[in-house]
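Researcher: Please generate the 3D structure of the following complex. Treat every line as part of one assembly.
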Amino acid sequence: MSSIKIRTKRLDGILQIRTLITHPMENGRSKNKKGHPIPAHYIQELIVMHNGNIVATTLMAGGISKDPYFAFKIKGGEQGDKIVISWKDNMGNSDTAERIVV
Amino acid sequence: MFHLSRRQFIHHSLTLGNALLAYTSGLLPPVLANMVWKPSHFAAQTLEQAIQQVIGDQQLLETRKIKLRLPQVAENGKVVPITILSSLKNVENVYLFVEKNPFPHIANFQLAPGTLTEITARIKMAETCDVIVIIKDSDNEYYITRQQVKVTQGGCGG
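Model: Done. Output below.
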């Protein structure tokens, strides 16, 4: 199952794009129950695309909350438009998901 | 029914493979090129250093045209919702900082021309302090605003 959920909503000439991503977002300074440090593991780059064009690129580190949630708004947005969201993390993992605007 | 011939199947697999390779190696898409994650972006340990890194020797202009929707009190510093709104024109980058976090630079949003300056995220806050947002427009002007959040229980671990 994808780590990325995408929801879109058309609002009077504006398209709202919301995403919720399953990710630990460990900043590398927390410890587990045994007192061992938990290695840093966080998303570094999130890209939101609308019909093949980038609408927002977000760079981040461990200061974003676990299971990141982001919302953006763009001008336009029609039924059938395609939203693609991808992320890459510091361990070389990545994921991508798409959703068609209804 | 599955109509792809073996040749078509291989062709499609290769195309997808190439696209993934291009993405992971940073060749695609073009806008990515000027926004590459670097460790140094988020390594500054004081707000001053973090801001310095973003703006260089440019001046910061205080503005009322950036609004931050933040709780006055955050009971859980691990998850503090923020919405950044601005009526500034031609916004290119939105930089988000938390004053007293061990690494104050939280995120850098690069927006395309058709993207509104209305961004929501959830951030970690170690303790009561200011949340700072700097916006850069296409004229390379930097605007700043700040707002305090009281944090009851810090959320940076360690």
